[in-house]
Amino acid sequence: MNKDSGIPFFSYEELVVLAHKSVEARGEDYIYPLPRGGCYYVHENQASCLVGDMLWTANVIGPEFEEHGSNDEAVGMLFDSVFRTDEKGQDFMRLIQRLQDMEMPWGHAVELATGPRADALLDFLETTSSDLEDVLQWLEKQEAG
C-alpha cells in the first residue's frame, strides 16, 4: 500500500491478498447477507461486505465509515476518494462486489475474479441485467467452449 497522496493505493496483487484474507476469515462458503436497505461496507460498527472487509483489514475504513456518505455506494464511487488502484484492481473490485451482491459465496467470487475469464465475466455483467443463475449459465457455456 502506498499513501503518497494521502489516499491509499493498492495494486491489483495487494487487493487479491486482502480478498483472500477476508475469505479465509469468513470462510469460502460465506454468503454476504444483504442488510435491509442494501449493501454496506460497514454495518453495526463492523466490516460488512467483502469490499468493506478488505478495506477494514487494510485499516482504510473503520466503524466511523458507517456514517460516511459513501457507505452504501458502488465500489466505483470509492476509487480516488477512499482508496486508489490501477485499472485491473478496479475491475477486480467491481467484479467481486457484483458477484457477492448476487449472493455468490466469497470464495467462489474471488476465484472467478482472479481466473482466466474474469475480464469476460465483468464485460458480461456490465452489459446485461444478470442474476446468479445467469452467471452460472454463462460460466457453463464458457467451459463447454
Question: Can you tag this structure with a few keywords?
Answer:
two-stranded antiparallel sheet, mainly alpha, single chain, 145 residues
Notes on the protein architecture:
Strands 1-4 form a two-stranded parallel ribbon. A two-stranded antiparallel ribbon has the order 2-3. The chain is mostly helical and 145 residues long. It contains six helices and four strands. Helix 1 crosses helix 2, helix 1 packs parallel to helix 3 and helix 3 packs across helix 5. The longest helix is centred in the first third of the chain and has 15 residues. The chain has one domain. The chain is globular.
Helix and strand topology:
Layout (H helix, E strand, L loop, with lengths): L8 E2 L1 H15 L15 E2 L2 E2 L2 H8 L26 E2 L1 H15 L4 H8 L4 H10 L4 H13 L1
Parallel strand pairs: 1-4
Antiparallel strand pairs: 2-3
Structural class: mainly alpha
Strand order within the widest beta sheet: 1-4
The proportion of strand residues reads 5-15%
Number of helices: 6
Q: Taking Cα atoms only, what radius of gyration do you get, to the nearest Å?
A: 15 Å
Output mean pLDDT: 92
Counting DSSP E segments of at least 2 residues, the number of strands comes to 4
Sheet with the most strands, sense and barrel status = 2 strands, parallel
Low-confidence stretches: none
Overall structural domain count = 1
H/E order of the elements? EHEEHEHHHH
Gap from first CA to last CA: 39 Å
Shape: globular
Helix content: 40-55%
Q: Outline of this structure?
A:
The chain is mainly alpha-helical and 145 residues long. The chain has one domain (9-144).
